[in-house]
Specification:
Layout: H1 2-12, E1 16-18, E2 25-27, H2 49-57, H3 72-75, E3 82-92, E4 96-104, E5 110-118, E6 122-129, E7 133-141, E8 146-150, E9 153-155, H4 162-174, E10 176-177, E11 180-190, E12 194-208, E13 220-226, H5 227-235, H6 242-260
Parallel strand pairs: 6-12
Antiparallel strand pairs: 1-2, 3-4, 4-5, 6-9, 7-8, 7-13, 10-12, 11-12
């Protein structure tokens, strides 16, 4: 029986070790070889044969650390929550609406008054010109109570397409037009509360065609920096807003791929 348990632990349990203080569990990065080791590997909770069988009965997912993440048999066990009721608490349209939901979990439990935040969707565009410089907007941001840099962004108007909004914001905030806009994805700002949907674009071949006219409340400054310098600032954590951090990270990966494929050329390379 001990051999069977050891074999199952080696194959199916994400091993966990503890730090020297014995308080905080730390995830191990590779399977633990328990051959010849007297003490059992720690599990959350300790996995006995009885609990192993109970986990199987309860359909608890035990991920095999050796198996490739994304296998269908590992990613199809969870079920959606069901919304039973939704009540509007605060309506500050078009900027914000706050709801409370009653939701039913897959096991039948009901959670009452689960908050949901809805804000308008917006487009954020990372512009890069033929010299390899990225255009950013520097302004005061009330949410972080600090001066911060971010790519041009703006709320999507009613019945407006995200791509159209991205082009509009690029022109308004930087006075630029782009040869091509690459869609990098759309993401909610909070997995638990929803918030708004951010549509991210990379604009290549940007050129100045007009003076910036942002029309926002805050005073803004336009800053153009080499994309490698912008990436260093990004790595150093100098951007304070998650939307900007995500947009720039996606843009850097796309820029590197376009450069590698010879699709994007800067300066003397053209």
């Amino acid at each position: 029986m001990a051999c069977v348990l050891r074999e199952r632990l080696q194959k199916t349990v994400i091993p966990i070790t503890r730090n020297r203080s014995g308080q905080q569990p730390i995830m191990a990065h590779h399977p633990i070889d328990v051959t010849g080791v007297r003490s059992r590997p720690l599990c959350p909770p300790r996995l006995t044969i009885g609990r192993f069988r109970k986990a199987q009965r309860d359909r608890i997912i035990i991920i095999n650390p050796i198996a490739p993440i994304g296998r269908k048999d590992q990613m199809s066990e969870l079920e959606h929550w069901q919304t039973l009721d939704r009540r509007l608490l605060i309506d500050r349209s078009p900027w914000m609406r706050i709801y409370e939901d009653d939701v039913e979990l897959p096991d039948g439990r009901v959670v009452y008054d689960y908050l949901r935040l809805e804000t308008p969707g917006y487009s954020m565009v990372v512009p890069i010109d033929d010299a390899g410089q990225i255009g950013l907007v520097r302004s005061y941001k009330r949410g972080v109570e600090a001066i911060d840099l971010q790519p041009p962004a703006g709320v999507i108007d009613q019945d407006e397409q995200p791509l159209v909004c991205a082009r509009r914001e690029l022109l308004e905030e930087l006075g630029c037009q782009a040869q091509q806009l690459h869609r990098l994805g759309a993401f909610v700002l909070s997995g638990n509360y929803h918030a708004g949907m951010a549509h991210i674009y990379l604009a290549t071949g940007c050129r100045q065609v007009a003076e910036p006219h942002p029309g926002d409340l805050e005073e803004q400054q336009v800053v153009w920096l080499p994309w490698q310098v912008t990436r260093q600032m990004w790595t150093a954590g100098e951007f304070k807003q998650m939307g900007a951090v995500a947009a720039l990270g996606l843009a850097f990966t796309t820029i590197e791929n376009l450069l590698q494929d010879g699709v994007l050329l800067f300066g003397e390379q053209k």
